[in-house]
Amino acid sequence: MAVMEFEKTRGFRIAAVVTGLALALIATVIVVHNRQQQAAMTHVRIAGGGFLFYYRLGEVRAGVTAIVQKPTPSQSRLVAEFENPAGGAPISAETRIRHGEMRYGLETPPLSGVVKGRAYAVTVKLYEYGGAEPLETHETVLTSELEQETSPQGPLTIGPGYHRPPPAE
């Protein structure tokens, strides 16, 4: 009887060791695969963007959304340079990467001269904290589906309520 109990225990031990080794091998394969995938990803990607028509304010702005895909040094800078529809130097918008945040919106001040159907270049750069050279550079284009003239010349309301603006003198 004692021999049969030993045989059962021995088989169980062998099965446990084999199962443990198989699980360790699977875990190792998963870790290596995840590291390879993460190494292939960029820190940031552009998720979208476009022109924002704030009709109540009579303003047109451009904006892009960037998503952090993998761990990025805290306090890194995310800088977007928008082609100026009025001509001249590019318009820049900047934000800091904060721990735990994944999505960042970068928006220009009010623009003028936006033309329907024209592509405007946008460059998004990621700078390490205190760094002068960008870690990554991403480019995209934004195209307006509306003319600037469709937006009112000034704000439709003034103040906290829906009051009409005072007549121009």
The main β sheet shows up as: 4 strands, antiparallel
H/E element sequence: HEEEEEEE
Computed structural class: alpha+beta
Number of strands: 7
**Percent in helix:** 10-25%
Order of neighbouring strands in the sheet with most strands: 4-3-6-7
Number of helices: 1
Proportion of β residues? 25-35%
State the end-to-end distance.
Answer: 110 Å
Q: Taking Cα atoms only, what radius of gyration do you get, to the nearest Å?
A: 28 Å
List the uncertain runs: none
Q: Overall 3D geometry?
A: elongated
The multimeric state of the shown protein is single chain
Give average pLDDT, whole number: 84
Please give a structural write-up:
A hairpin with a 6-residue loop joins strand 6 and strand 7 (134-143). The model has no long low-confidence stretch (mean pLDDT 84). The chain is an alpha+beta fold and 169 residues long. It is built from one helix and seven strands, in the order αβββββββ.
Secondary structure layout plus pairing:
Elements lengths: L1 H39 L3 E11 L4 E10 L8 E6 L8 E6 L6 E5 L11 E9 L6 E10 L26
Antiparallel strand pairs: 1-2, 2-5, 3-4, 3-6, 6-7
Entry keywords:
169 residues, alpha+beta, 4-stranded antiparallel beta sheet, 3-stranded antiparallel beta sheet, 1 helix, elongated
Summarize the entry for a quick read.
With 169 residues, this protein is of the alpha+beta class. The chain is 23% helix and 34% strand.
